[in-house]
Amino acid sequence: xxxxxxxxxxxxGSGTAVVLLHGYPFDHTLWRAQIAALSDTYRVxxxxxxxxxxxxxxxxxxxMDLLAADVAALLDRLGVERAxxxxxxxxxxxxxxxxxxxxxxxxGLLLCAxxxxxxxxxxxxxxxxxxxxxxxxxxAPVVSGMLHLLFKPGTNLETISAYLIRSAMLxxxxxxxxxxxxxxxxxxxxxxxxxxxxxxxAILAGREDQIVKLADLQALVADLPHxxxxxxxxxxxxxxxxxxxxxxxxxxxxxxxx
Length: 258
Ligand code: MLT
What we know:
This protein is an alpha/beta fold. The protein has helices at 32-38, 64-77, 90-101, 121-137, 140-143, 147-150, 160-171, 174-185, 191-194, 214-222, 239-242, 244-257; strands at 9-12, 17-21, 43-47, 83-88, 106-112, 201-206, 228-232.
């Protein structure tokens, strides 16, 4: 595995460390409302993952293990041994990789609009094609078709939130897009990582998520009753933006109950 890179991050508050990991292809500002709210009680650490935001974007594919190792190196720099890892979508894949590789560093795991399943072969193949396209043609042709899938159906995309989300996506460098697409394509199934009772685990789902389907998560937790599933009404794939108060409340409830 490549060496960790020094991640750009935002930190605020004190207390139990909570790491908020963004999804693809965004940056830590996705969690702005939750960083502001939760830092009254917790030490909130929100990095830009490798290839995103202001963090370095070296050449190559970025496995979820590599992204998790970058975050662990950041926690080392900050003197944090254990943290609650909360990840949005791809950030959830990174949190699962951390729990598999270094369980001693994970005091709790929360997936937000995320899931533990590997890509089906056709999805992995299309990610590889999109990775090659990003390197050839840039970020815009790969990410611009995603916007309408991120918000719940029927959302007016001519709004400031949609504009900011689109801008964050377009700022992601082609190498960042290609690196994580290559890494997501080969990530293993992680359902087994959710099976142990410890540490506490929960999933937050947008009821109208068009990317991570609520029915799939309901079927998953039917087999894993210790994993709490909380559904955020009025949200699609971006609960932290579409329903910030409800998302913060669900995060608080999980953190308080641990
Ligand atoms: C994300 O929001 O991080 C992506 O939808 C994850 C994925 O493409 O699987």
